[in-house]
Specification:
The chain is mostly helical. Helix content is about 50%, strand content about 10%. It has a 3-stranded antiparallel beta sheet.
Length: about 220
């Protein structure tokens, strides 16, 4: 049996001391998404890659706190790329793990209606999101997002670990990690096969819940 695992967050205690970010545990075993994503990939992706983002984010935030305490604006500025990259990596992967499930269910009626209104059909949305994700040059992410101003679903890509909401204003609903570490051990250089297969383990209950929350 596995424990339902927590999502790592940064909290502030009563005495305002910053608690460190933590690596979120998964709500399923590393092997649960096979054959779509192998146990080896999930283990390395979560316990090594995501853990590195968390560790580096904590280190950057510690340096930031020290620089702010000293009024060292030069160091504050130079830390911005590390905070964006590692903070984005932590944010993106925390969403990604929840976006996947061996039993993802079906999208809610509200989400289906929104998808059909914007893309014509679920298949059209999947095809467009897949094409955009496969087309990312180098490393990055493909996203189904929600524009809170227009109340519309949007497909968007981000380079590297740029977090969707912080860089575009779109609320992330479903993200596809197209960094090679997410698929190369299993799919080699055929990113398209990985992207096509990942829809088979999409957690539509989680995606639907994110959509309904974004509507409020």
């Amino acid at each position: 049996m596995y424990a339902i695992r927590r999502i790592g967050t940064t909290l502030r205690s009563a005495n305002n001391v910053r608690q460190k970010h933590t690596l979120p545990d998964l709500p399923y075993e590393y092997s649960a998404l096979e054959p779509v994503i192998s146990r080896e990939i999930m283990s390395l992706h979560h316990s090594k890659h995501h853990a590195t983002y968390v560790n580096n984010l904590n280190a950057a935030e510690e340096k930031l706190a020290q620089a702010q305490a000293k009024g060292d604006i030069q160091t504050v500025i130079t830390l911005a790329p590390a905070l964006k990259f590692n903070g984005g990596g932590h944010i993106n992967h925390t969403i990604f793990w929840q976006n996947l499930s061996p039993k993802g269910g079906k999208p809610s009626d509200a989400l289906v209606q929104a998808i059909e209104k914007e893309f014509g059909s679920m298949e059209n949305m999947k095809n467009q999101l897949a094409a955009s994700s496969v087309g990312v040059q180098g490393s990055g992410w493909g996203w189904l997002g929600f524009n809170k101003l227009t109340k519309k679903l949007v497909i968007q890509t981000c380079q590297n670990q740029d977090p969707l909401e912080a860089t575009t204003g779109l609320v992330p609903l479903f993200g596809i990690d197209v960094w090679e570490h997410a698929y190369y051990l299993q799919y080699k250089n055929v990113r398209a096969d990985y992207v096509k297969a990942i829809f088979d383990v999409a957690n539509w209950q989680d995606i639907s819940a994110r959509y309904e929350k974004a509507l409020k």
